[in-house]
Design goal:
Elements lengths: L1 E5 L6 H15 L3 E6 L13 E5 L13 H16 L3 E5 L1 H17 L6 E5 L2 H8 L4 H10 L2 E4 L2 H10 L6 E3 L15 H8 L5 E6 L8 H14 L2 E6 L5 H11 L5 E5 L4 H6 L3 E4 L8 H8 L4 E4 L14 E4 L4 H12 L2 H15 L4 H17 L2
Parallel strand pairs: 1-2, 1-4, 2-3, 4-5, 5-6, 6-7, 8-9, 8-11, 9-10, 11-12, 12-13
Helix pairs in contact: 2-3, 3-5, 8-9, 8-12, 11-13
The structure holds ligand GMT.
Ligand GMT binds next to helix 1 and helix 4.
């Protein structure tokens, strides 16, 4: 199949999911075309089945906002015609499904019918919760897609509750590539630069938006390190980072916290972590938690959104109500305080992650692609 993938190419779960999906489809022999404004961060290796087409938005001073959707829909039309692409898979209703629908209409005028699969990742829904003026565009984009998928049951339920949806929504969970090899030879030496052998390493990875509740990450760590020797690795960048640094300084733990910024070495970082913290306000899935579990790292998270579908309470880690720093700290200590318990949780985390192996999830997308193509 010739498939175009449209996504946000930045350090975010949806971009990672779209990129890994495209790469795995390419490995299976499909021809995959990424169409976006910059090369997705994890699209380092190009293979002959993988193409990347950049969407350029010419700057024009008359426009207060440069029209990305227009540029994207034109690019989609051009690439579909040039490469005879058979299916569009867009990640996020706005603006991608919105632009994809316009491309479909333009192509139809030229006698080309192309199906569009839209995957919902959550932020569309959160955004509409905060800014209802996007609601008509999101509803329209979802209803005009040929197939709609959602990364969790929780996100599907939220979407059906908040919008007037006439389309079926298929739940396809996010996935992880389990066969990936991490260069373990680097692990002990890197770890020793971060923490002593007797110290536990706690980790949080995100885009440091408010929804991630970074202060809760720090407060949990603050309590943990009062009981056991520990270090905290904070990976990623975003609007809440500076406040996080100030809070660490205020609590007197700055010397125990390492701010890494954005990194492409997530697996390496996770390979010397003992516990992952994800106390988010809302999370449609929590890909970062799954990435941690796949590296054998148990997770302390909230029970919001799709997190209970990924992190199993008392097995791969623990779930708590949003903001319950007290319980999250107690649970973290429960996991970290002795080696036997920690090893058991690490093994459980990896075992749970295996349910989300890309090998099991990819056929679900391929089946829906066939169904979408069958529509025309
Ligand atoms: O979490 C973010 O802020 C980034 C956002 C994105 O667009 O990558 O993540 C969303 O999609 C991920 C992939 O499906 C999910 O794992 C995240 O839970 C979801 N974020 C939210 O729902 C807040």
């Amino acid at each position: 199949m010739k498939i175009a993938i449209v996504c946000y190419p930045t350090f975010g779960g949806s971009g990672v999911v779209a990129t890994e999906l495209g790469l795995e489809l390419a490995r299976k022999g499909h021809e995959v075309h990424f169409i976006t404004y910059s090369q997705p961060v994890r699209l380092a290796v190009l293979d002959p089945n993988v193409h990347y087409h950049q969407v350029n938005v010419p700057e024009y001073p008359l426009f207060h906002y440069q029209p990305y959707e227009l540029a994207l829909s034109s690019k989609l039309v051009d690439m579909v015609k040039l490469y005879k692409i058979e299916l569009l898979h867009v990640h996020y209703a706005i603006p991608h499904a919105y632009a994809g629908y316009m491309a479909k209409q333009m192509l139809r005028d030229e006698g080309i019918d192309i199906p569009m699969v839209t995957t919902l990742h959550g932020t569309d829904i959160t955004l509409v919760g905060n800014h209802p003026f996007y609601k008509p565009a999101v509803t329209f984009s979802i209803n005009k897609s040929d197939i709609v998928t959602s990364v969790s049951q929780s996100l599907k339920d939220d979407t059906l509750r908040m919008f007037n949806i006439t389309n079926e929504i298929y739940v396809i969970p996010n996935f992880i590539e389990l066969d990936k090899q991490v260069d373990k030879s680097k692990t002990p030496c890197y770890r020793s630069r971060i923490a002593n052998d007797h110290e536990r390493v706690l980790t949080h990875i995100s885009n440091f938006r408010k929804v991630k509740r970074i202060p809760d990450v720090i407060k949990v760590f603050h309590r943990v390190q009062q009981q056991i020797p520990a270090k905290l690795m904070l990976v990623g960048d975003g609007p809440e980072k500076e406040k996080a640094e100030l809070l660490c300084a205020e609590l007197g733990i700055l010397d125990k916290v390492i701010f890494f910024g954005n990194s492409n070495e997530i697996d390496q970082i996770l390979s010397y972590s003992d516990l992952f913290l994800l106390p988010s306000e809302s999370e449609s899935f929590g890909l970062a938690a799954l990435e941690a579990m796949a590296m054998g790292v148990p997770v302390i998270s909230t029970n919001s959104g799709g997190l209970p579908e990924v992190n199993f309470d008392g097995i791969s880690g623990y779930l708590s109500n949003v903001g319950d720093v007290e319980q999250m700290s107690a649970n973290a200590l429960k996991i970290l305080s002795d080696d036997v318990t920690l090893q058991q949780f690490k093994a459980n985390a990896l075992e749970t992650a295996k349910k989300f192996d890309i090998k099991n999830i990819l056929p679900m997308y391929e089946e829906l692609y066939q169904k979408a193509i069958g529509v025309y």
